[in-house]
Amino acid sequence: MERKSFQDMDCPIALTLENVGEWWSILILRDATHGLTRFDEFQKSLGIAPNSLTRRLGSLVEAGLLERRRYNDRPPRYEYVLTEAGEAFRPVLVALYAFGASHFPPMAPNVRLVDKETGLDVDPLLIDRATGHPIDEEHTTFQPGPAADDRLRAALARRNEQAA
Fold it and tell me: What is the distance between the alpha carbons of residues 46 and 27, in angstroms, rounded to a whole number?
């Protein structure tokens, strides 16, 4: 089955999924956020086939989320380091972590998200930088953007009327 491309969509979510929507890619970014950089580290962590890992790393480099850097000349060896865009993906990983911990909690988590000063577990909350309000149903809503078609405008209008 051929994968559908989202590259021509005018939706930030679809365009993000175009670059990181495959689950291996998200797990590679998770591992890179945890400090893994080398091919063998990713492979051991994920149990992914080498050809799949090579493809996924290449896609993340092409998308500008990872940078491929040579760390050894003979034989040539490379590491994969988060770029600025890759670092900016961290809040998405934190949101997935929080969702998973709440809705699909493992028996014993392999990682905890803690406050650096107190060492206490944190409860992530997405907030608006300008107002400080939480990004939730009470404080925010989606509105049509300039590229919205009539179908999307109507769906958002119905949704916003129901929420009012």
Answer: 8
Query: What's the pLDDT tens digit per position in 7-18?
Result: 777 777 778 877
Query: Quick one: which of 22, 99, 26 has its CA closest to 65?
Result: 26
Contact 120, 114 (CB under 8 A): yes
The beta-carbon contacts of 67-76 under 8 Å, at least 24 apart in sequence, are: 71/38
User: pTM of the predicted model, to two decimals?
Assistant: 0.84
- Orientation of helix 23-33 relative to helix 50-62, angle to 10°: 80
* CB burial string 2-13: b at 16+ within 10 A, e below: eeeeeeeeeeee
Q: What is the pLDDT of residues 86-133, one digit of tens each?
A: 999 999 999 999 988 888 888 888 899 999 999 999 999 999 999 999
Distance CA 116, CA 157 (A): 43
